[in-house]
Amino acid sequence: MSLKYTCPSCGTPLGYEGLCWKCKCEQERQAALAWTPEQIVEKQRNLIQNIQRLADMEDPEFADFWQLLGYHDVITPEIQRMALAAEVFWPCEIYYHAPADVRDGLIHALLSAENSSAASNLMSCLAMQGDDKAMETLLELERNPRPWRKGLYVDPSSYAQIGGWTFDKEGQKIQLNFDTCYPMVKGTTGEKSPVCIGREREDTCPHCGGRMVDILVLDGRDERLKFLGLDGILTATCCPSCVGFLKGPAFNRFTLDGGVEVFPSELFDGAEKTDCYVSPEEYKALTENPFVLGEAPVPLFYGAACQDVNTIGGFANWVQDAEYTTCPHCGKPMKYLAQIQWDTVFDCAEGTLYVEFCPDCQIISMQHQQT
């Protein structure tokens, strides 16, 4: 069935008149990025005055919050203090790097919590605040659980991961996120980039017979990527058809000269081989996508509330829960590296691919989430 309309911006066939969802997101982002200082102050003031509407996911406050945080990094201590006073503990990102007085208020509320739901929200907020005293509090609660712990699925150290860090049994803090973020942007024909999404390979997937793809190739020697601490090339390789069906992450080992060793996976617990759902046309779209590394860093939450933004570093837009893979070699939690929104690079899949790596073992994890 042919669709009647096309997006006036990109030409995508549509069943309705107007912009496609991706062009609409881009239009809204560009509008938010163009806010004047006066507009930012006004939106901050409105958020303070109507902070409960944020918790209730009411617009414009909900949309304004994510645009203030993600595009301008201007969630002020005044906003955080008002949220604490109003007992607004969601979204937890409102407390990212909040000042000491707000942190102490969160700790008091957490230690006074009587049920697992309240404790869960408050631990998430404290994880986002993330300083040493926040860690000491979560560590103490892990070592000496309160009664509400029985109503939760995971320990406080797992809640810490929401803030991009965790701690081990000895109480040593482990950073899971990088404090720098770069966007992937649409480049011009032939433009060179130290990051490539979707590079063609010759080998095939043992499960579906489809072509494997270097889904992310990253040259850490580029000045923009020095924050990763990689003196060479990182390559993440997977089957784009099967990676979304795995019962766990896909893994490979990389060498800094560009080499790759793909680890076998027990797909479907030994079930019969599956079909490849990626057509030749979709492989072509994936491996010829226009994305290149942006020239300048952006706020850490730039891609954390968007379904159309691919980023290196910073925070992810977790579709479900924050999920940091354990390195299969050393047993340590891996560091979050990148997110790739599938439907920005081809049309046959939805959801997000999260790429993590263990710097010590040079092992990469690729895991998929979707609604």
Short description:
This protein has 371 residues and is α+β, with helices and mostly antiparallel strands. It has helices at 21-33, 37-49, 51-55, 61-72, 77-85, 100-112, 116-129, 132-143, 156-160, 280-287, 342-345; strands at 5-6, 13-14, 165-167, 173-175, 181-186, 195-204, 211-219, 233-238, 250-254, 260-262, 291-293, 311-313, 335-341, 352-358, 363-369.
List keywords for this structure.
2 domains, DUF1963 domain-containing protein, globular, 11 helices, 371 residues, alpha+beta
**What's the β-strand tally?**
15
Measured as a percent range, the helix fraction is 25-40%
Strand order of the largest sheet: 10-9-15-14-13-12-5-11
Question: Structural class of the secondary structure composition?
Answer: alpha+beta
Number of domains: 2
Biggest beta sheet summary: 8 strands, antiparallel
Number of helices: 11
Shape: globular
Order of helices and strands: EEHHHHHHHHHEEEEEEEEHEEEHEE
Structural write-up:
The structure is a single chain. By secondary structure, the protein is of the alpha+beta class. The protein folds into 2 domains: 75-175, no CATH class; 181-369, no CATH class. It is 29% helix and 20% strand. It has 11 helices and 15 strands. It has helices spanning 21-33, 37-49, 51-55, 61-72, 77-85, 100-112, 116-129, 132-143, 156-160, 280-287, 342-345; strands spanning 5-6, 13-14, 165-167, 173-175, 181-186, 195-204, 211-219, 233-238, 250-254, 260-262, 291-293, 311-313, 335-341, 352-358, 363-369. The strands form 4 sheets. The protein has an 8-stranded antiparallel beta sheet with strand order 10-9-15-14-13-12-5-11. Strands 6-7-8 form a 3-stranded antiparallel beta sheet. A two-stranded antiparallel ribbon has the order 1-2. Strand 6 (195-204) and strand 7 form a beta hairpin. Helix 2 (37-49) packs across helix 4, helix 5 (77-85) packs parallel to helix 6 and helix 6 (100-112) packs antiparallel against helix 7 (116-129). The radius of gyration is 22 Å and the shape is globular. The model has no long low-confidence stretch (mean pLDDT 94).
